[in-house]
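During the reporting period the student researcher (J.K.) took over the structure-prediction task from the postdoctoral fellow and processed the backlog of single-chain submissions. One of the processed entries is reproduced below for the supervisory committee.
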Amino acid sequence: MKKIIVLLQTLILVACGTGKVEQETTLNPNNVPQGVRGRIVEQPNEKATNKVADSKMETQFSFPKDIEAIMDFLASDELKGRDTGSEEIDKAANFIEQVFRENGITPYFDAYRDTLTNFDKPAFNVVGYLEGSDPRLKEEFIILGAHYDHIGTISPENGDAIANGANDNASGTAMVLELARYFGKNKNNKRSIIFAFFSAEEKGLLGSKHLANKLTESDLNLYTMLNFEMVGVPMVGKDHLLYLTGFELSNLAEVSNSYAGEQLVGFLPKAKEFNLFKRSDNYPFHETFNVPSQTYSTFDFTNYGHYHKVGDENSEMDFAHMAKVVNKLIPMVSGIVNTNNQEIKYN
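J.K. obtained the following structure tokens:
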């Protein structure tokens, strides 16, 4: 997240999970990918609440290899840290666009790329759209977002100058791409969804500021904005998988947990102490639309010491953890997208 000061850089813990890989993907990191494939396996879920699903079935859609295939490209040395305005971030945008095309996600504007008006080099967000299925609710929008830029190359450490940005924020990008793949394949969303990948977050949240302003000018009926940032490794010693910035500002955590059927989202005191609510791409939507706009993360100030360093690489990521989070996000986001009433409120 923007300008986070990592206090405990020496404390690094990557808790390795386990996961069964049940299919191969077809991504080719040297070219635009051929696609990310997966399937749904439904199993009984004894913890499901009445809100989650009447069938009480658990979705197993994303697998570690799905996540790894995305991350292996986005955080590769080939992309040289995805600096805003660079040739390499253009390759990352190509990648995102291809996933959109293969999964039935259409451009929200005339094209997937929306050029930033507040940056001095050619730069763009990548914005996809999936229309809702309900005649009334499709006029309401959910934004699922993550920034796909990073800081490029920096002062070398042991001969390595590439700040790959695996956790920050190829991890959040991968999760939103997996959610786009799920909803694109199933098309079971009553509300309309915008999948937004922001550039120039590292330059001062410029991509999200641009998009928020542009959407409010068109009178978009925004219900809520859910942002994902630094979710590549598990938190340490917590009874929940994710924390929510601005936790106390709304009932989003309560709603999220009710649809997840478990304590998926919790409170992190450090997030409040460092006011992370204002330091990621949720904040411009909060300012512009004044609707619940918050960020989900697993960076807890003790579990990752590579923030804005060359060590932020895929070797530090826990792909089993990430796939687990995606699978638990699916019923959560589905509930928010499909509920008949707008349940999420600012306090």
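The committee noted the following: The CA atoms of residues 144 and 195 lie 5 Å apart.
J.K. will present the remaining backlog at the next meeting.
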